[in-house]
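note to self — DONT lose this again. spent like an hour looking for the file last time. sequence + predicted structure for the chain T wanted, 222 res
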Amino acid sequence: MQTSSPPGHPPDIVALYPALANVLSGQGLPAGAALLTVPAGTTMFNEQEPCKGFPLVLQGEVRVARRSGDGREMELYRVGPGELCLVSSTCLFRSQPLMAHGVATRPTTVLLVEAPTFRRWLDEPVFRDSVLGLFAQRMADLTALVDAIAFHKLDRRLAAALLGHGQELAVTHQALADRLGTVREIVTRLLRRFEREGWIEGARERIRILDSAALRRQAQGL
């Protein structure tokens, strides 16, 4: 990484992060903060490592992803200028190792703020509200991602699993979850959705099929 710390903060920091206006107060970069300029492909942080600071992206973009045990990756979100990193926030708030890694997708400049400075900034109501607001926005994005992963194809597989056994199945939610390779809570939520649609009727350890044609369409992704 190439690091530079000019005497005054670049004019676009407050433009990108208006909540910093009172925090910086025209005094330039605070102690414990530095500008980092990196080329595309640079790893900004790694999973299971301690967070080195809170990154504020001024230029470029950081791709945040998780890596599975077999080496596969799942992108969680991307951080551009004016946006905040949920993974870094969580790490600093809970003093836990990072749960994902971040890689610059293009030449990127960030203001890296040390944890004590970031926590001190949180005492400023405007900055704290901004962080919490963007934190909530990131959580909504991740919730949408989880929903897409959990339900996009699983609902089709569940619909297919309910077909071909007659009008009434003697089966538990846990048994269906085991068959589909998921957890009972997700199966329960999907079955409740099917009930609201009028496709099935649930009872204790039993499921009655009310609209097999609708379930078949769901299984086929129609």
